[in-house]
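[agent] plan:
  1. take the single chain provided in the ticket
  2. run structure prediction with default settings
  3. attach structure tokens to the ticket
  4. add a short note for the reviewer (M.T.)
[agent] executing step 1
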Amino acid sequence: IKCMAVGLCMLQAACAGSQHTGVGSPDDPKTRELISQTIELVATRYIDPISREQILVNTLDGLSSIDTNIRVDITPSELVLQYDDRVVDTIALPASIDDTVEADNMQVWSEITLDGLSSYRLHSAKLRNSATEDIESALISGAIRNLDRYSRYEGPARAENARNRRDGYIGIGVRVVGGSGYPVVKLVHPESPAARAGLNAGDQIIAINGMDMYGKPSRYTADLLHGEEGSIVHMEINAAGSTSITPLEILRERVIDRTVHAEIRDNILVARVSSFNSATASALGDSIMKAKLGTGGLRGVILDLRGNRGGLLQQGVAVADLFLADGPIGETISRVVAARHVFTAETGDLTEGAPLVVLIDGRTASSAELVAAALQDRHRAVLIGSTSFGKGSVQAINDLPNRGTLTFTWSRINAPSGYTFDRIGLFPAICTRSDADTTAIHQVAQALSQRDKTASVMMRWRRLDYQDEKSRRELRNVCPASSHGETFDVDVALELLKNRHEYKNLAYLGQEEIADTFASQ
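[agent] step 2 finished; step 3 output follows
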């Protein structure tokens, strides 16, 4: 495809026919590589098979998000491009390609996509006036438009923010607000270089590395604070409530968001885990060890997963491993070999068998649900709260050449007993409700009195075909999902942990101990 000026393309539009003239900046090696990789990833790694031809149609149809006059159809032999309800071009599809050499023909699909884009730009002023990154975003978003609701594309900026949440970033550990006046520190991460240097929320940043920061936006300020690990940033700070300016030298480090918030109540560790990033399991392990070393030792653990939407699957596995001596944690199933995994406990029970309660609600999802399901299935924990969200699928996060990411589902999760909690969620042994006029003592007593009924529901839960909509809704309505985040759930958990006999009665609900069902797979 030859690059030509837009004006020349417009003059030749009437006679362009099926000759696909270049379109300027979108037709370059980087865009071609980006589109090629997108189509191939979806074709080979999405959980359900989808043909490259269909992905091609979806990809080009994504341009309709920029210009609604665009419509793409397909016949067995050609791609049909329509604009403003009329056919403006057709592009021949490649002959059937043997799967064994498909990888060598990846460029075919990107070439057709760019040919289609070139043709549409001849007719669409909106496309001609769009930035390359916006066109790329429309094409990639189109490629995944008809996949499941967890599939998404994130451009370079949003993808970088997501990477920082998962893996941390190199900086000093502050969030700032800028724009008018001097940038102001909004948040200081605990145990970060900034916290150790004495920075506080409300402090003004007067200068960074000798540069006056007056009027600088927050993004610009953040970029100056980032840098190489081990390097020093020189700052001048006007502390909140002070009239003096203080010079500081702060060493940049990797800063990872805190996801574990722990406290001790009567020798019971109450640990709220907000999500799973690369430091979650180690942070929770540290909290457990500190609790064990305290006066009186560790009498129990309340693992609060309410509102936890998941995160890194391997970190969820590692968290479950902290509480299990051995045996299965779960498995992932997929048509993609690389997405199939069997997870088993390897590190031993760090709590040495201390009673464990897990709090869940309607926003507990994904890897957080795997943790709760594994501990419930293995009779290692009592679940308290409401039915969870029901996201038993795993998303692959694929880095793209433009530094964006393409995320889509590539496997489903099975709990140790073999059931999938996708779309059904988890059922708690003690169902708490915000409108219930009751006490924690009465809530525990009621759960014990309904033990057989709860066990029956759990057995039905594990045998459910998640595609059976009627049964799925009926079961979820036994304890409807809620997300109130109340302290009452913690009170119920503390009450249950006071009595080891009552705790065991509810921990061993539904079935015998799960065998190592994955050992032979």
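[agent] step 4 note for reviewer: Confidence is low (pLDDT under 50) at residues 1-25, 512-521.
[agent] ticket updated
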